[in-house]
Amino acid sequence: MGLTNFDELNTLSTTETTKDDRRKATRKKIPIHDYFENMQISEEEKEKRVRLANLLLADVLFLFALSRRNRDTRYLSETFQKRYLSSVKKVTEPDQKMQRYIRKVCDSIVKTTLKSGLDDGKKQGEALTDSDAIKVSQDSYAVSIERATSVAENEANAILNGEEYSNAVKNGCTKKRWKSYRDERVRADHADVDGQVVDISRPFRVGKYMMMYPKDDSLGAGLEEIVNCRCSVEYLYLTGGFFEKYEKRIQSAEQYYDSIRNRIDDIEKISNNTHISYTDVEIVKRHVFLENHILDDNVAVFDADYDMAVAWQRLINGTYEDRDIVLLKHELLESQVEKEYNLNYRDAHNIAQKKYPWSDIIDQMFGGEGEDVDLDRIIQEERR
To answer: Domain-by-domain residue ranges, the chain?
Structure first.
């Protein structure tokens, strides 16, 4: 569990805007309970997060009040750490790794509070006058209820995500599945990894970073993948048979993609079956199977996707589903905007997803595990 100095993102602009601007920009907070409501975790885990977030909210507000009278970094950090640790112990028993994290994050929160809390030349260690204290409390996001709530929510998730991972390892879980929040605010990188299953000792690939679980920055994940993340992980006791099936799907998709790249009659068959023009189907095929794209960390063709392979074969067979037509329209639009506006894949995908949300349809129908169809079987159906 690494240090996540996330709230500096919210205070960074305080030196660049007027106090009136900052007051207007302060975001409205949803209730703490609602913040965790749709996370893909048990009700017990939700209530645990709510309880810890409320305890930490009181601790952060105490820090803000104390910092109005005392600007000594060491004193504030030690006092805040004791309260923070005491609150965590009411919900879980922190191990040494968690305690190291608590010390680091408390130091970070204190330093950000002191750095951003007053821009009038006061030095750390110098007491504030009554008028100074009022000025800080009214004008600075650094000591606002909005920042306190954001810190509490994020810290509750960070602490308990780390605890769940440690417990899963101790309890002998062998695999883990990433589960996104699945609302309109989910990051594209997190939506992409939703449903991915990996060995418990291996990280997830999230955008250009590696993460052991949501909000983990121990492997260098950037703040853009951590701040306000409400994803979760399902820990699994899986035999080799399940994981072998998952790996077989990947292998089957890769073999299918290779065969389609060398095929010349699939475009005409799909066009005849769907009454979508030959030209449009050809554009989709080149986009999905043949062309390079600006990806998150390189320029390359797309990785093989089992669900897309199944859809393409159904379109060839003429046994396609409505969602397969959505896929064609999604990929056509994605290709068009990518080329017309010289976009990277991520931006083009997000535009197409708003009009033709194919991956969302798959997730809603199959819960992140993908099409429950044997690709080899539907290939054989075409040959009959």
So the answer is: 8-171, 241-383
What string of H, E and C letters represents the secondary structure of 57-95?
A: HHHHHHHHHHHCCCCCHHHHHHHHHHHHHHHHHCCCCCC
Return the closest-CA partner of residue 87 out of 51, 115, 41, 123.
Answer: 51
Residue pointed to by tokens 């993340």: 229
Tokens standing for residue 119: 């821009």
Which tens digits make up the pLDDT trace of 308-360?
999 999 999 999 999 999 999 999 999 999 999 999 988 899 899 999 999 88
pLDDT digit string, tens, across residues 214-253? 999 888 888 899 988 999 999 987 655 556 677 788 889 9
Residue found by looking up tokens 């703490």 in the block: 32
Q: Which amino acid is residue 170, in one-letter code?
A: K
Per the CB < 8 A criterion, the answer to whether 141 and 22 are in contact is: yes
Residue 185's φ and ψ, nearest 5 degrees, are: -95, -5
What is the value of pTM for the model shown?
Answer: 0.58
- Three-state secondary-structure class, residue 367: coil
Question: Which own/partner pairs from 95-102 qualify as long-range (CB within 8 Å, at least 24 positions apart)?
Answer: 95/166, 97/1, 97/162, 97/166, 98/1, 98/159, 98/162, 98/163, 101/1, 101/2, 101/3, 101/158, 101/159, 101/162
Own/partner long-range contacts of 260-266 (Cβ < 8 Å, ≥24 apart): 260/285, 260/289, 260/309, 260/312, 261/289, 261/290, 266/312, 266/316
Q: For residue 62, what are the contacts with CB-CB under 8 A and spacing of at least 6?
A: 80, 83
**340 burial via Cβ count (<10 Å: 0-12, 13-18, 19+):** exposed
* Amino acid at position 366, single letter: F
Give Cα separations from 382 to 247, 269, 319, 375 (angstroms). Answer: 24, 11, 10, 11
pLDDT digits (tens, 9 = 90+) for 9-41: 443 333 333 334 334 334 445 688 888 888 888
- Contact status, residue 72 vs residue 159, Cβ threshold 8 Å: no
